[in-house]
């Protein structure tokens, strides 16, 4: 089993795209994107989709390949990405996966937990509760039905809340009892490479990125999407804050400050998620290219030829 998937992880705005392209060019291979916000054609500026220049420097897969109007779950991504990896590994010994969505990275590198099917009406009812009563009702429900999972997830993410609640309600068991069961083995090895920086550096880069997004026209992008604001794809940082501004609830300056604050919180959650992988090799975001490539050559060779 000499096929190696190099997983490039780290918090938002730290430079994962740049490093992914560097590695793809070095190993003459292609990139799987595991950033769930970059799947959608209608969302470009607010999701920091790689630039046209970046996309021409290395072949990327799963970038803006779906519409926000098409349901696309992490399970769908797992199936599609594994199929693409089988295809890529037929011509490459090494493939790169880049992304800040920890669940989507894990879906490929480790596999997803399996859950029983539940009635669609449960999710429909929960969506109605969200629309009519707000996210606090869902948070309260999960805190009672599965306090263990409530204390682990992003309780401000309605999609995650509803997913957990529909399992709790549909099975009569806590969502957390279905997690971390044995999963099927992958036919490739995974080498995880994490970018890191001091918190102050990450926060400064986030603030600069948000300012640049606004200069590039994020507000205009959000205006075009306002009528679709209830879709799951748009329940994300950078969009929901500007919807509040467009509704007249917030000033523009306050909305921008909230985008920065919520993105910083997201980066903190990303670090927490990725730190769970104790085998990750960490490098400073301000790395020297020749040094990191030499390190990766050595790490890939050792992984390819170690006993399985």
Instruction: Provide mean pLDDT, rounded.
Output: 94
How can the largest sheet be summarized? 6 strands, parallel
CATH architecture annotation of the largest domain? 3-Layer(aba) Sandwich
Question: Low-confidence stretches at least 5 residues in length (pLDDT < 50)?
Answer: none
Q: What is the CA-CA span between the terminal residues? A: 8 Å
In terms of structural class, how would the helical and strand content be classed?
Answer: alpha/beta
Give the CA-based shape.
globular
| Cα gyration radius (Å) | 20 Å
Which topology of the largest domain does CATH recognise? Rossmann fold
Helix content: 40-55%
Please write the string of helix (H) and strand (E) elements. Answer: EHEHEHEHHHHHEHHHHEH
The CATH class of the largest domain is Alpha Beta
Number of domains: 2
Strand content: 5-15%
**Total number of helices:** 13
| Strand adjacency order, main sheet | 3-2-4-1-5-6
CATH superfamily of the largest domain: P-loop containing nucleotide triphosphate hydrolases
What does this entry show, briefly?
This protein has 13 helices and six strands.
What's the arrangement of secondary structure elements?
Layout: E1 4-9, H1 16-26, E2 31-33, H2 52-57, E3 60-61, H3 74-89, E4 94-98, H4 102-109, H5 120-133, H6 135-145, H7 147-150, H8 158-171, E5 189-196, H9 199-216, H10 218-225, H11 240-246, H12 252-274, E6 281-284, H13 289-305
Task: Give a verbal description of the structure.
This protein is α/β, with parallel strands linked by helices. The protein folds into two domains: 4-112 and 183-305, P-loop containing nucleotide triphosphate hydrolases (Rossmann fold, 3-Layer(aba) Sandwich); 120-178, Histone, subunit A (Orthogonal Bundle), CATH 1.10.20.140. It contains 13 helices and six strands. It has a six-stranded parallel beta sheet with strand order 3-2-4-1-5-6, with helices on both faces. Helix 5 (120-133) crosses helix 8, helix 6 crosses helix 8 and helix 11 packs antiparallel against helix 12 (252-274). The longest helix has 23 residues, at 252-274. The relative contact order is 0.17. The mean pLDDT is 94.
């Amino acid at each position: 089993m000499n096929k190696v998937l190099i997983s490039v992880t780290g918090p938002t705005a730290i430079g994962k795209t740049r490093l992914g392209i560097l590695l793809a060019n070095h190993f003459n291979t292609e990139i799987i994107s595991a950033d769930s916000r970059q799947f959608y054609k209608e969302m470009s500026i607010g999701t920091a989709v790689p630039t046209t220049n970046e996309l021409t420097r290395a072949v990327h897969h799963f970038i803006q390949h779906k519409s926000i109007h098409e349901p696309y779950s992490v399970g769908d991504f797992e199936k599609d990405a594994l199929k693409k990896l089988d295809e890529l590994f037929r011509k490459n010994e090494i493939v790169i996966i880049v992304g800040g969505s920890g669940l989507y990275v894990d879906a490929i590198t480790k596999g997803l937990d399996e859950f029983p099917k539940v009635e669609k009406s449960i999710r429909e009812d929960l969506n109605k509760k969200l629309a009519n009563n707000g996210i606090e009702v869902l948070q309260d429900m999960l805190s009672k039905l599965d306090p263990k999972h409530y204390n682990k997830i992003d309780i401000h993410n309605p999609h995650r809340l509803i997913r957990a609640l529909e399992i709790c309600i549909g099975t009569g068991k806590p969502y957390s009892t279905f997690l971390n069961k044995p999963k099927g083995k992958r036919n490739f090895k995974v080498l995880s490479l994490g970018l890191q920086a001091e918190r102050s550096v990450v926060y400064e880069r986030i603030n600069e990125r948000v300012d640049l997004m606004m200069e590039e026209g994020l507000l205009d992008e959000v205006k075009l999407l306002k009528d679709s604001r209830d879709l799951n794809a748009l329940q994300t940082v950078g969009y929901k804050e500007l919807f509040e501004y467009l509704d007249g609830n917030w000033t523009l300056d306050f909305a921008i400050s909230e985008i920065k604050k919520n993105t910083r919180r997201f980066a903190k959650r990303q670090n927490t998620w990725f730190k769970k992988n104790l085998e990750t090799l960490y490098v400073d975001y301000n790395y020297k290219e020749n040094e990191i490539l030499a390190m990766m050559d050595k790490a890939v060779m050792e992984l390819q030829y170690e006993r399985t």
